[in-house]
Design brief:
61 residues, 3 helices
């Protein structure tokens, strides 16, 4: 394996990691006011069981 190929693989892994970190920062924290609002706008048929439980725990009670 050449040095260029090694750098290419390292760059690809770093890029993927940064993309994942960047995308995860876009969703509001579970239980926050923004998250509750986002869940109100999402059709309840699309909610997961965990989302429904978290919504009931943080947004209703």
């Amino acid at each position: 394996m050449s040095v260029t190929q090694s750098y290419s693989k390292i760059a690809a892994v770093l890029s993927a990691g940064l993309l994942i970190i960047g995308l995860s920062a876009c969703s509001p924290e579970v239980g926050s006011e923004a998250w509750c609002k986002q869940m109100k706008e999402k059709p309840s048929g699309d909610w997961t069981a965990n989302e429904a439980a978290d919504y009931a725990k943080h947004c209703v009670f």
